[in-house]
Amino acid sequence: MTMKTIAIIGAGPAGMEASGSLARLGYHVVLIEKEATVGGHLKNLFQLFPDRRPGKEILTHLVQTIKHPGIQIKVNSEVSEVQKLDNSFALKINEETMNADAVLVTTGFDLYDATEKEEYGYGIYPNVITSADLEQMFHNGKVVTEEGKTPKRVAFIHCVGSRDEKAGNNYCSKVCCVTAVKQAIEIKELLPETEVFCYYMDIRMFGPYYEELYREAQEKWGVMFIRGKLSEASQNMDGSILMKAEDTLAGKPLRMNTDLMVLMAGMVPSASSKKVAQQFKMEEGQNRFFKSADNHYRYNESQQMGVFIAGACVAPMNITDTIANARAAAVKIDEYLKN
Amino acid sequence: MWGFNITKTRAIDFDKNNREPMMEILRLEPSIRVCIACGACTATCTSGNLTPFNIRQLNVFMQRGEYQELKKEMHKCMLCGKCTLVCPRGVNLRHLILKTREVLLNEEPLFAQN
Ligand SMILES: Cc1cc2nc3c(=O)[nH]c(=O)nc-3n(C[C@H](O)[C@H](O)[C@H](O)COP(=O)(O)OP(=O)(O)OC[C@H]3O[C@@H](n4cnc5c(N)ncnc54)[C@H](O)[C@@H]3O)c2cc1C
Ligand code: SF4
Ligand code: SF4
Ligand code: SF4
Fold it and tell me: In this structure, is residue B71 part of a structural domain?
């Protein structure tokens, strides 16, 4: 019997972990990544919630996982054509054609484009940044305003582009509440004199030790939480930002100036996932992420026979869940190929 | 003993409150059911920034069958519709306010429908 081949599209945490699992099960894996390097969004994460472990540590571990003779990695590569055969797929990649007995789609997410929420001023006022921009500042070890000053106040705005009908996304992105709390603590560590506020509608601390991190932010670091959605922001003469919200617990409109405003931009299905969906005739759910064949029993199966899904292209999820999900998909693919 | 009978309780007596007007308002404009009390409407409200008028809170009172405050405050709304524009849940606040006024203040409907 010849060795069976699995094509995995997208080399973020999901694709990398699944590659390792499948290779160890004895399959031949072709891992296809459109960017020049593997790692997906994990590449940009300085420290991970909830334990503040360096993102690099997990990335190194995953890179180790895919160093396996059964795994062929193709970076700067995309599937350009798909042909469905009887029990397999013919895929065209960089002018070469390969045959895959099963396909695993792990194309991940894109960050919500915060310029779409014009009333918040991202892309207009330089001191309005996203959580991803702040993560980059932590990488560089320096958090300063556009004017090069140490911010005396930093405000985090939860739910930007998530839970917002006006943005077209009714779902919750799941990871941004705890990311805001993590980043708030990082600011306090770096700049103890800086005041930090979080503007939230609901605080969602779904994972182990997330609630504890929230409590630590309040107790140890004095981060303040204001329950209200930002309605709009404008720029002052000195470049600082004027925020308007209701302090719903006080029952009054509230105004506050801040030197830096951080938007917790949510997750949206990636643009390239859409392309893959068309190529493989996969269905999207109401939230536009990939639709599972069954939400409980067949979570990693798409509606298309032989095409599997895992990670943040299925729903917003953290790295722990992404890794577990990728392994679950590997087991499903193994069962599928053995029958 | 003094005063105990005359001082009205501050608690919302949900079971005693007349919920019929509320049910009627919710029938005429059901979208308020998905409100998550984020306060974006109140924050942007022209009237709310000048007076104690708080549209988010008033809608909570309405849904608990407490109409005292609403009857006093509803006229302060200028029907500018800014609240409807910012609502992340797509609540049709402007229409809700019109219907609330009709039901509670017996105002004539602005339009023939509903
Ligand atoms: C601001 C922020 C902070 C976060 N912080 C944390 C944290 O501290 N801890 C934590 O657990 N999680 C965190 N997360 C979540 C974490 O980023 C995700 O759980 C994880 O990246 C999901 O992995 P994935 O492989 O499913 O998707 P991605 O990381 O999105 O990877 C997808 C990969 O697929 C590639 N790809 C896409 N389409 C194609 C295609 N058509 N062909 C080839 N390749 C393709 C992409 O280039 C990418 O490399 C954070 C998320 C955000 C937004
Ligand atoms: S995780 Fe928190 S910030 Fe993110 S969308 Fe959900 S509620 Fe909003
Ligand atoms: S903006 Fe919408 S969701 Fe928020 S409090 Fe007002 S009505 Fe409710
Ligand atoms: S329509 Fe009424 S409640 Fe809404 S913002 Fe205008 S004044 Fe305020």
Answer: yes
In this structure, are residues A185 and A221 in contact, taking their beta carbons and an 8 Å threshold?
A: yes
> Which residues in chain B have their CB less than 8 angstroms from residue A246's CB?
38-43, 48, 54, 56
Measured CA to CA, the distance from residue A105 to residue A326 in angstroms comes to: 10
Those residues whose C-beta lies under 8 Å from the C-beta of residue A115, and which sit 6 or more positions away, are A122, A123
* Number of domains making up chain B: 1
Domain that holds residue A334: 5-108+270-338
pLDDT, tens digit (0-9, with 9 covering 90-100), for A146-192: 999 999 999 999 999 999 999 999 999 999 999 999 999 999 999 99
Among the listed residues A154, A174, A172, the one whose alpha carbon sits nearest the alpha carbon of residue A163: A172
- Taking an 8 Å cut-off on Cβ atoms, the answer to whether A231 and B86 are in contact is yes
Examine residue B50 and state whether it is found in any structural domain, yes or no: yes
Whether B101 is covered by a domain: the verdict is: yes
Q: Could you give the ipTM of this predicted complex?
A: 0.90
Q: Sort out which chain A residues have CB atoms less than 8 A from B54's CB and list them.
A: 246, 251-252
- What CATH number did the domain enclosing A207 receive? 3.50.50.60
